[in-house]
DNA sequence: GCTGCGGGAGAACGATCGTTCTCCCCGATG
DNA sequence: CATCGGGGAGAACGATCGTTCTCCCGCAGC
């Protein structure tokens, strides 16, 4: 097996197991048996579990950001671009293996404690906030709206994860629409 | 030492440690040394770590609900009663040991897995939703608003926890005010 | 065919943790 | 004062886990 495919299989297998049961509850041996990559290779590619976790989170960060960006860029209207983030959430929450946001969950499990893992989670959420800040500016809305949209998105993730239901995405989208309507700069135009 | 005070000290110590570092990262021995209650007594009162965790979560659930209720009932105006929930969040997030919502964190750490602990977390969040549902009905607002406020509250908890900042409470409160204003049934009266 | 050698399978090791057991002290009771 | 029982301190036990080590197979080069 190629080293690159082994790496990919490890990251995908580890992400699936971490997502399902948490990080600490999954042993390296289980990642080995589920991925089919031997322990020797595993430790060649990732010298410790911490580094594997970091790599999984970094990859997840890239995947999520790419998916969100693709959704956003499918629209031209600045308001639609903002709502597209919530459409992404809706599609995500409907996936059968959805079990909440990896970064919120990881923070809950390992949080407080310093270290690279916490930094990655914080940076990921900061990126979400930055995205909303840019979209809000492009839509000509007041800066404060970005923070409110960030809270709506994170709240939808947390609520959907715990309740095991995708409906928070639609509810958050609807709230975002109301907030957008309340700050509409130009006089008319319906959504 | 009285059995009741031992029980209280155990629950408070365990909560503080779980809040700070997560559940799995805290050993029974550390709870013993931090609480000053011997292991024998600990296992007399809570025959297993799982039962201690359950008791801690149940107590936390009661404490939070009592605090929120007190804040809400300090106001008469139905709109103020809704906003009081976000004032509670603001006061909570400012406490130096705040590290996110215990139930969101616990779900992230142990989630997915069935069992009493997950049930308690889900029930706690359902209670928050029920509270908003009642407050929204009393304020004469449409039902959908309750879900949106729930998402705002949970989002403020998750965002404040990860960012380590209390400002999401104020941002969520401001968003809630906008949502309330957008659905105001009677013609006038300023907030 | 023989020799290395890279990699796979899984045993082994040391640490940690939940839980139980042992030993000892102390205070109450006659 | 002797006895007895409950509780404290901490050792002990068995399981799990991250990490390393051992053994062996299959294949490249001569």
Report the total helices of chain A: 9
Low-pLDDT ranges of chain A = none
What is the level-2 CATH architecture name of the largest domain in chain A?
Orthogonal Bundle
What summary fits the major beta sheet of chain A? none
- Determine the most extensive contact between two protein chains: A-B, 48 and 48 residues
- Remind me, CATH topology of the largest domain in chain A? Tetracycline Repressor, domain 2
Assembly type of the chains comes to: homodimer
Mean pLDDT of chain A: 95
- Look at the helices and sheets of chain A and give the structural class: mainly alpha
Distance between the termini of chain A: 53 Å
Question: What can you tell me about this protein's structure?
Answer:
The structure is a homodimer of 191-residue chains. Chain A is an all-alpha fold. The first copy, chain A, has 2 domains: 1-47, Arc Repressor Mutant, subunit A (Orthogonal Bundle), CATH 1.10.10; 48-182, Tetracycline Repressor, domain 2. Chain A has helices at 3-21, 28-35, 39-45, 49-73, 78-93, 102-110, 116-138, 144-163, 167-182. In chain A, helix 1 (3-21) crosses helix 4 (49-73), helix 4 (49-73) packs across helix 5 (78-93) and helix 5 packs antiparallel against helix 9. The termini of chain A are far apart. Chains A and B meet through helix 6, helix 7, helix 8 and helix 9 of A and helix 6, helix 7, helix 8 and helix 9 of B. The structure holds a DNA duplex (30 and 30 nucleotides). Chains A, B: Keywords: DNA-binding, Transcription, Transcription regulation. Chains A, B: This is TetR/AcrR family transcriptional regulator.
